[in-house]
Write a structure and sequence with these properties.
zinc-finger, SUMO ligase activity, alpha+beta, disordered C terminus, Herpes Virus-1, 14% strand, five-stranded antiparallel sheet, Jelly Rolls
Length: 525
């Protein structure tokens, strides 16, 4: 069985064959004396099968010759007189890897399918690249069409055993845009906008875009679950893309994943922001004459999860005392690594995060239902719930006296309401014998804002009066003296009661009886 270096080298040659034109494929076939008829797919399959037969048959000299022909054809510099009996095996000091040289982590590639130098990605605290499993393949510009590149992953026995034993050992697809400086700078993970990834004909469900207009927020595509974990099994990973205006570089890496729990445990083992340091900084700001220091409210809830903070942390670059929860922050960065402080939006990193002992002490000194504390400029803090007292509820006591009735005049909204004596707002219960004769008398007795008590209605008016001929009732007169009105009304009540007791049927008329019923407001029938 071929070694890992030889398998990776074979996959590089096959991937390069798939990027060639028909003319290049025919040149390779002619150099080996093979048929040149058929469509492009037939030419590719014919060359690939021939290469695999040479590799598996142990004919290393012809295999090495054909490999050099493929690379030379890709460079468009294949000599016309090149033939199998003229070509010699490459020297040991050649930069191109041979069957006696192990594949480097990033193999040199041509502009038609291989990188021109080492491809390095920006470090992430969530992943550590252990080994490159495939060569780096170039995705050409396709502004109006679509294209596909294939990566073949062949695992050896050691890698297969480790993948089966360690769930945090993952196989991931890395991709980056070709900027021309990839071999000198660290690249962000970036996939084409229109892209589809398949592993062993299964569609890979992964977010390959990241956040809009924020480079570096894309994660590598995890294809571990789609890979056949068998030694020597050829796993095919195909990336189909379209409508690209720049080239991309793609490869497959074996990485060690670091879960959030592991990173939080690492934070706890680091040097912390001590309580004394925080108090010293707060006192220094309070003593500054150019700054007016006042008490502030510190929230004990994480601004990301809106839950109470469990592990308070913040960046060393931040000047605020407000912290955020380490679990929530790292979980968010694992999904979309923006690495910005959720409080002040400053750029941060995992290396700059530290646990704040001052806030941690507050969290352990308060009950879980406390959401915020008041912090003084000198560092002293207090619990607002413990200092506040419960306010008495404004409940109106119920009255047991059913005889007190409050009457409001309908249709007459007062302009200004003032506190009045109790006699003006309530009436005493009328004796039983005075309730039955007339409901009109009750209405006159219950009204508090109608007219002075001296104006009395004739209850024995003629029934023959034509209501249509009666004049329009004049506007209501305002009450000028509520106290005098109540006294006059009491006198009216006494006289009316005497009238009922004596049994007289003559109409009861007030001292100002010269007014007709229609002029007095029309309270009769």
């Amino acid at each position: 069985m071929a070694s890992v270096g030889q398998s990776s080298e074979l996959q590089s040659v096959i991937a390069l064959v798939k990027t060639m034109t028909n003319a290049q494929l025919k040149d390779i076939l002619r150099s080996e004396g093979l048929a040149v008829s058929g469509v492009k797919a037939s030419l590719q399959i014919r060359i690939i099968n021939f290469i695999e037969r040479l590799n598996q048959g142990g004919d290393l000299e012809r295999y090495d010759h054909l490999r050099r022909v493929v690379y030379a054809t890709a460079h468009r510099s294949i000599p016309q007189s090149l033939s199998s009996h003229q070509y010699r095996s490459p020297s040991a000091n050649h930069s191109m890897p041979t069957q006696h040289q192990p594949m480097p982590l990033s193999a040199p590639m041509t502009s038609h399918g291989l990188t021109s130098g080492r491809l390095i990605f920006k470090e992430s605290p969530f992943y550590t690249v252990l080994q490159q499993l495939t060569s780096t393949v170039e995705c050409k510009v396709r502004e109006q069409t679509r294209d596909s590149v294939e990566l073949r992953v062949v695992l050896n026995q050691d890698v297969t055993s480790r993948l089966q034993a360690d769930p945090n050992l993952r196989v991931m697809v890395y991709c980056a845009a070709d900027t021309g400086l990839n071999q000198y700078t660290k690249s962000d993970i970036a996939f084409p906008h229109q892209v589809e990834l398949k592993a062993n004909l299964d569609e890979v469900k992964a977010n390959l875009r990241g956040l809009k207009n924020k480079p570096g927020t894309t994660r590598p595509a995890d294809v571990t679950e789609y890979i056949r974990k068998k030694p020597g099994y050829p796993n095919h990973i195909v990336m189909t893309y379209a409508l690209t205006t720049k080239k991309f570089l793609v490869l497959v890496n074996l990485v060690q994943r670091h879960p959030v729990e592991e990173l939080v445990a690492e934070l706890k083992l680091r040097k912390i922001i001590s309580k004394e340091q925080v108090l010293r900084e707060m006192k220094s700001r309070a003593d500054d004459t150019d700054i007016v220091a006042t008490s502030s409210v510190m929230s004990l809830k994480c601004p990301l999860s809106t839950l109470r903070i469990t592990v308070p942390c913040r960046s060393l670059l931040c000047t605020h005392n407000q912290c955020f929860d380490a679990y929530s922050f790292l979980q968010l960065q694992e999904q979309a690594p923006t690495w910005s402080c959720p409080v002040c939006s400053k750029a941060t990193s995992f290396e700059s995060l530290q646990i704040d002992q001052y806030v941690d002490d507050i969290l352990h000194s308060t009950s879980p239902d406390i959401e915020q504390v008041v912090v003084e400029p000198d560092g002293r803090w207090s619990n607002p719930k413990a200092d506040s007292t419960s306010e008495a509820g404004g409940v109106t006591p119920e009255s047991d006296d059913d005889d007190l009735i409050e009457i409001k005049e309908l249709g007459n909204t007062p302009i200004k309401q003032e506190s009045l004596p109790a006699t003006s707002l309530s009436l005493q219960r009328t004796p039983i014998q005075s309730r039955e004769p007339s409901s009109t008398s009750s209405a006159a007795r219950l009204s508090t804002n109608k007219r002075p008590a001296s104006q009395v209605i004739d209850l024995t008016g003629s029934d023959d009066d034509n209501d249509d001929d009666s004049p329009v009732r004049p506007p209501k007169r305002p009450a000028l003296n509520l106290l005098n009105r109540s006294i006059s009304r009491q006198g009216f009540h006494n006289s009316y009661n005497n009238h009922l007791v004596n049994g007289r049927t003559a109409p009861l008329v007030s001292q100002t009886s010269s007014e007709s019923p229609s002029q007095s407001g029309g309270y009769g029938a």
